[in-house]
Amino acid sequence: MEIKFSRRLFLKKLSELTKTLGATIVFIPILSCEKDWIIPPTLKGEFIELDLTNEKSDILNLPVLNFIGSGVTKQFNQVNYGIPLIIVRTKKENKDDDFKCFSGMCTHDQCFGKDKVRAPLKIETISSNIKVCRVVCTCHGSEFDLLDGGKVLKGPAEKPLKEFKCEFNPQKNTLKIYY
Ligand code: FES
Q: Which CATH superfamily groups domain 47-178?
């Protein structure tokens, strides 16, 4: 009886252990996926075309991308895992490289909010001798300069924001974003 009980106990323990191991085995790939998830994918050779005329300020209903340093965040399900992109005007020369497009994901990689998407970055333009258009991560305060390739202005992040290739068409006032 005691042996039976021990065997049952043993099987119960084994079952619990299997469950734990199972959970561990499942958990490790999830962690690895999560690590992969934060690395933006390589370009698939596809693009989306955005009509910039429609990108207006919510408050004034005026176009918002008319001056250097102005920007919007846009979310596209098929791009950057649905994590919003930051589109910013870095020049006003009516050329195809007037705009830059960055991932809105902070590269500090330490803050996961709802659905593991990091806290949104907020756009802020600062004018001084050196013009910067900085976005600030609301998590630990890292700052990035959108006028200078998304480079880090202030840590703890060390890497610049991931940049997406984009191409402005001044005639059509559209922006192609490649992904
Ligand atoms: Fe952005 Fe930490 S996650 S500063």
A: Rieske [2Fe-2S] iron-sulphur domain (2.102.10.10)
